[in-house]
Amino acid sequence: MNHTRKPLRSLRAAVLLGAGSVFLMGKPLPARAADEAASVPDPVGFLIRTNYHGWADAILLSNGRVEAVIVPAIGRVMQFRFAGETDGPFWENESLYGKPPDPKSTNWLNFGGDKAWPAPQSEWKRVTPRAWPAPAGFDAVPVEASVNGWVVTLTSPVDPHYGIRTRRVIKLAIDEPVMSITTSFEKVSGQSLHVSVWGVTQLKDPLIVYAPLIASSRFREGYVLQSENPPPSLRTRSGGLTLTRSPKEAHKVGTDGSTLLWMSADEVLRIDSPRQVLLAYPDEGASAEVYTSPDPLPYVELELLGPLTKMKKGEEICRTSKYTLLRRSEADPELEARKLLLR
Length: 343
Fold this sequence. Notes:
Elements: E1 21-24, E2 27-28, H1 31-38, E3 46-52, E4 55-62, E5 66-71, E6 76-82, E7 114-119, H2 124-127, H3 136-139, E8 144-148, E9 151-158, E10 164-172, E11 178-187, E12 193-204, E13 208-212, E14 224-225, E15 235-237, E16 240-243, E17 251-255, E18 259-263, E19 267-272, H4 282-285, E20 288-292, E21 299-305, E22 309-311, E23 316-327, H5 333-341
Antiparallel strand pairs: 1-2, 1-3, 3-4, 4-5, 5-6, 7-12, 8-9, 9-10, 10-11, 11-23, 12-21, 12-22, 13-16, 13-18, 14-17, 15-16, 17-20, 18-19, 19-23, 20-21
């Protein structure tokens, strides 16, 4: 299962791999340069605007090793995958391909992918007219996309109830299978409120999910149960928690850690967002959470949260998550997880 590639040659080169416009450092790449880049055998970076499953003006960003599919029309990073492949670990709701968001809908349009919500969820019913779905300004509106070199920034409208504008800065490492997303909440209007940046990544039905447990955890068992019943597959040993998705019932657990792992038969995705010490966190103090969805929507969510902050008008908070995608190299999933945590 080992996966090797030659080192990334240069991010000054770009290759057109699909329909759309090729960009080099945010500018159109001349046809001659595109032809020359196409002859380079080593991995190269590129950025193109394209149509993704019916959403026009999507952005495909690649560093030659991994690539991100960004869809401003629904305000999400919809896929993160190995370069040149057509699929990846992010879960996508195929029944909603190409459809626009609807901020007035009382039914949640669950597109999939990666997004940012305001935590804690328990405050939604106090701040907004409804407890569910998520506040429209964070989940159900198109966003503006800007490109600066190899960095893509998504900027939302101001949510009318929270008075917050969301900004997400997405970039890929130069020569590693790594994506980083820095999410900022800017308080533009309204009364002060306590809020946390909550990154939500929806992923396909996994072989296992693994969460390292903190030796000095605030939780007696190293985790806190956030659903009525515990996941039937939940296991804790060797300093880690593992679970799988139940097709019959939704489950959720939280930890006070900074890392979560998703694993399939041949891929593993690690998400990191360091916890800040001595600060308060939502959801009884959890900073890393796993939600598993029952059928008919076979996905799990890996969720990393920032500290609770009282935001006043004019203030901004931000949170960075790092996503590392690798091929499996060990037959034993738990051994794979422990090995990856040493990176």
